[in-house]
# Entry
Amino acid sequence: MQTIAGRSIPDKLRERFLGAKSVLVVTGAGVSAESGVPTFRGGGRTAVWKGMPFDVISSASMVEHNLAAVWEWFDYRRNLLRELKPNPGHKEIARWQERFSQFTLVTQNIDGLHQKAGSHDVIELHGSIWRARCMSCQGRYHIPENATCPAACMECGDRLRPDVVLFGELLPAGAFERAAEAASQSELCFVVGTSGIVYPAASLPEMAKAAGAYICEVNPERTPLSDLCDVVLTGKAGEVLPRISLETRKGYG
Ligand code: BJW
Ligand code: ZN
# Structure
């Protein structure tokens, strides 16, 4: 593992970036930090609601016992998100989908900022804050940016909850399987802005590595995944990712 904190992108990464056909990007809360979204752990402001840490308010137990409080917390976050814009990190990742013949973006984020930046077919492992899900029939409802969520399920009338994945809950059907398939076929894998402690998302770089991919982490801090990576670019996603593209342009330097 090589740690790079300076200005330039190492030659090996440049070679891989120029030659790769199949690329996987795995992102976490850190990629949205420069847009103003609080992270869950470390790296600046962390998510707290009325004095409760996020793992208390964003928990299956709270959904069961106080769904109204959970909605209040998610409504509050959606209101903040409405004003926030994708940052250069999101935008660079969106450009990469045109650059590589096989490109997969897997995010743990629920904020929708990758899609706002132009990314499509994003695998959202932990759901979306912009959807609600019926607690009985699993019917899903998009929540438009300028509207409130429907009061109840239009199919069966039961209560709706945010369509996000809390600890101990299953990921959306097929999402992890598609991500794992992409990991097993990748030649180059970027792990951006995640603390790498939440599974099964954190196993994707491990799978990519086992399949022979070159792994590059982008994060201002070290994580439990750093040792697995071939290179660690120490810095903010919005600064480091555009530099990778810039420094791999023909004639650079
Ligand atoms: C920057 C930056 C900048 C700052 N640029 N970087 C195997 C082993 C052990 C445990 C498990 C296991 N498999 C499953 C588990 C249990 C559990 C788990 O992983 N627990 C661990 C904590 C030990 N996993 C689950 O429960 C998952 N479900 C599951 O596996 O189902 C099967 C199952 C069922 C029943 C029993 C067992 C298994 C579900 C996980 C759901 C996670 N949900 C949350 C909350 C969403 C709702 C909400 O938003 O309120 O998702 S938790 C929270 O953590 C959120 C995130 O998506 C997730 C990951 O966090 P992330 O993105 O990494 O953010 P941070 O804040 O942790 O890190 C930010 C990073 O950015 C830092 O490193 C900074 O340095 C960096 N940074 N600025 C780049 N500018
Ligand atoms: Zn229903």
Q: What stands out?
A: The longest strand covers residues 127-134.
